[in-house]
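Progress note, sequence design subtask.
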């Protein structure tokens, strides 16, 4: 029985198993709605155009996908750098102003 215990506490064990049982019961009670949802997702995915040509092979097949991924990564890095730099400037500006006000 000790092997079923989570975190050496029967409280955590009861919480985890109880929540797991509630999720299972909720999933079983709503299985028709869940199946309908995934059916709609599948129908919408069929309508999508995918960024590769099915006639091509190898890496050329995924060229648009690779290029788009590179653009997203570079954009994310640039936005992260801008945000970090702006945060650094604002933090130093505010700390300088608070030090100035404390000395007055």
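Output:
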């Amino acid at each position: 029985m000790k092997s079923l215990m989570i975190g050496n506490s029967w409280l955590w064990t009861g919480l985890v198993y109880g929540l797991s049982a509630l999720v299972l019961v909720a999933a079983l009670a709503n299985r028709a709605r869940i199946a309908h949802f995934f059916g709609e997702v599948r129908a919408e995915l069929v309508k999508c155009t995918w960024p590769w040509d099915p006639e091509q092979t190898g890496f050329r097949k995924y060229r648009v996908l690779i290029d788009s991924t590179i653009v997203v990564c570079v954009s994310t890095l640039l936005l992260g750098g801008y945000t970090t730099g702006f945060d650094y400037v604002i933090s130093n500006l505010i700390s300088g102003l608070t030090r100035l006000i404390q000395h007055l």
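The chain has two domains: 1-48, 52-104. Work on this subtask will continue into the next period as scheduled.
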